[in-house]
């Protein structure tokens, strides 16, 4: 009897220790959580999967302790926080002493509170709790997620105890994509360049609306958006795959068709040319232009191979424009880096009125020359002296006649006829006569009778309505007739008069008239 009592005491102690830990329950996970479609994600149809039959069963009274049960959703899923509350049912063989209440609901956790205990009275009354009506769905359509519902509360087994396995599967067939591999590792064939003569193999893969892989499917193959030399025969198909081989420069998108599924084509595949050899003027500059104004048609230069294919992968070569024939400096951005083998100039201009052409050059290429460009003057802007006033006599017309030209802002002569130009004194005394003239067909005003009534050193300016006045003319001297003023006396035929020997005749020139003197001359310049 003592021995039996001893064994019973040990059994009681073992039970007590187990009961204090509180986690001797049996958990039966729900079986409703597998195979949830990716289409149930919020971005899809948003449907909820209902989970039932989560059971927590005491194997002995007192294992369920007061506290809470926190059912946490695995990553990639979310609980329904609206609609009907989840249900629970507490059962026991004799009397139900445990009360369960729903405490809170969030997208990641549902919390239930437990109060009471099954330790009695009555004795030997283990309890069972059943949870039903928990609704779950994927939080996003991809990637496919899986995991287990876990308890983070204190009233029931926690840790790695599984309250239900949850898993996703791909949704309904939605699209067929042209991909790089015939399995889930494939991706849509990207935009790429393919050197002429090379090939690329592609595969037709069926996926759901979230791009989850379903299968590699036999398809009808085609080329879409073909350009230039690419033709349908460049694509060789064999059911679930196809091979594209490019021979001529051009581009296309590869498409696979399976029934009524949406189609996702490949990125644009561009067949690129061989080595660059030539500069070509694809767009000639304008044949006429106005000084200082950008050419209405700007030149476009292409880098091509021997077969006239543009070298579209060249984004480094610099092409420089320069004036070839004609006069003046080319204006604007003269060096352009090609983009996809093309240099497009945007602001070239020229300021000197004449006929020019342009040369385009780049390292490693022979230069090319444009057609001729006629640069016309800009709008009339100012006056300038083209024949300066010369020294003259009082009340006598200056000879040669003073001439004033209409010019644009870049000093190009403007052929503007019938503009009245007036000369006026800027420095010096007296009055000026014959100081008004009209421009001829060349835009030149010729003053045939301009004269001054007082002697002295002077300078003049020219003005006209709507134009900027000329700059100040050169200084000139007006003297009385017969007065030698402002001249150099030199030997006939040129040269300074040196020291002369008395009694000898020296021939000198003054104002174009020769005369003889026997003297020692000291020659002074104008003063």
Compile the SSE list and pairings.
Blueprint (H helix, E strand, L loop, with lengths): L1 H20 L4 E3 L7 E2 L11 E3 L2 E4 L9 E6 L4 E3 L7 E5 L7 E7 L3 E7 L12 E5 L1 E5 L7 E3 L1 E2 L13 E5 L5 E5 L12 E4 L3 E9 L5 E4 L3 E9 L6 E3 L3 E5 L4 E8 L4 E3 L4 E4 L5 E6 L4 E3 L9 E5 L13 E6 L6 E2 L3 E3 L4 E3 L4 E2 L4 E2 L1 E4 L6 E2 L3 E4 L5 E6 L4 E2 L8 E6 L12 E8 L4 E2 L2 E3 L5 E4 L3 E2 L3 E8 L12 E4 L10 E2 L14 E5 L2 E5 L10
Parallel strand pairs: 2-14, 15-23, 16-24, 26-36, 38-46
Antiparallel strand pairs: 1-4, 3-11, 4-10, 5-9, 5-13, 6-11, 7-10, 8-9, 12-14, 15-17, 17-18, 17-21, 19-22, 20-21, 22-24, 25-27, 27-31, 28-30, 28-34, 29-32, 33-36, 34-35, 37-39, 39-43, 40-42, 40-45, 41-44, 45-46, 47-48, 48-49
Radius of gyration: 52 Å
Which CATH architecture of the largest domain? Sandwich
Distance between the termini: 156 Å
Give the helix/strand class: mainly beta
Kindly give the count of domains. 5
Low-confidence regions: 1-22, 509-527
Question: Briefly, what is this?
Answer:
By secondary structure, the protein is mainly beta.
């Amino acid at each position: 009897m003592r021995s039996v009592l001893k064994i019973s005491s040990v059994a009681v102690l073992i039970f007590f220790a187990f009961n204090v830990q509180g986690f001797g329950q049996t958990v039966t996970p729900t079986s409703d959580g597998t195979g949830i479609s990716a289409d149930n994600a919020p971005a899809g149809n948003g449907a909820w999967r209902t989970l039932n039959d989560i059971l927590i069963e005491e194997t002995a009274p007192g294992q369920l302790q007061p506290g809470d049960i926190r059912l946490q959703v695995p990553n990639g899923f979310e609980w329904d926080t609206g609609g009907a509350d989840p249900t629970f049912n507490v059962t026991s063989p004799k009397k139900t002493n445990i009360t369960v209440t729903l405490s809170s609901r969030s997208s990641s956790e549902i919390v239930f509170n437990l109060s009471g205990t099954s330790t009695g009275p009555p004795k030997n009354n283990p309890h069972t709790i059943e949870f039903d009506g928990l609704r779950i769905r994927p939080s996003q359509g991809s990637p496919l997620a899986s995991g287990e519902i876990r308890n983070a509360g204190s009233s029931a087994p926690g840790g790695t105890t599984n309250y239900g396995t949850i898993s996703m599967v791909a949704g309904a067939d939605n699209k067929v994509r042209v991909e790089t591999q015939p399995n889930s590792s494939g991706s849509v064939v990207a935009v790429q360049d393919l050197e002429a003569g090379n090939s690329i193999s592609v595969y037709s893969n069926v996926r759901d609306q979230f791009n989850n892989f379903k299968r590699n499917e036999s398809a009808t193959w085609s080329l879409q958006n073909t350009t230039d030399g690419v033709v349908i025969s460049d694509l060789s198909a064999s059911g679930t795959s196809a091979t594209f081989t490019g021979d001529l420069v051009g581009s296309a998108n590869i498409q696979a068709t399976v029934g009524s599924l949406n189609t996702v084509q490949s990125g644009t595949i561009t067949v690129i040319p061989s080595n660059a050899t030539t500069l070509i003027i694809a767009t000639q500059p304008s044949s006429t232009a106005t000084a200082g104004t950008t050419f209405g048609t700007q030149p476009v230069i292409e880098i091509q191979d021997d077969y006239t294919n543009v070298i579209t992968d060249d984004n480094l070569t610099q092409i420089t424009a320069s004036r070839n024939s004609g006069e003046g400096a080319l204006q604007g951005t003269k060096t352009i880096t090609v983009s996809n083998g093309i240099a497009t100039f945007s602001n070239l201009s020229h300021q000197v009125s004449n006929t020019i052409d342009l040369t385009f050059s780049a390292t490693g290429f022979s230069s090319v020359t444009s057609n001729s460009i006629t640069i016309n003057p800009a709008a009339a802007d100012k006056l300038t002296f083209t024949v300066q006033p010369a020294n003259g006599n009082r009340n006598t017309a200056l000879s040669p006649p003073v001439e004033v030209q209409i010019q644009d802002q870049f000093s190009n002569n403007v052929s503007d006829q019938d503009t009245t130009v007036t000369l006026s004194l800027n420095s010096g005394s007296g009055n000026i006569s014959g100081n008004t003239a009209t421009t001829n067909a060349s835009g030149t005003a010729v003053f045939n009778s301009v004269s001054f009534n007082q002697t002295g050193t002077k300078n003049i300016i020219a003005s006209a309505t709507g134009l900027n006045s000329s700059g100040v003319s050169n200084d000139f001297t007006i003297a009385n007739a017969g007065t030698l003023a402002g001249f150099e006396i030199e030997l006939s035929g040129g040269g300074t008069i040196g020291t002369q020997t008395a009694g000898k005749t020296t021939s000198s020139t003054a104002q174009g008239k020769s005369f003889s003197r026997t003297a020692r001359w000291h020659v002074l310049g104008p003063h």
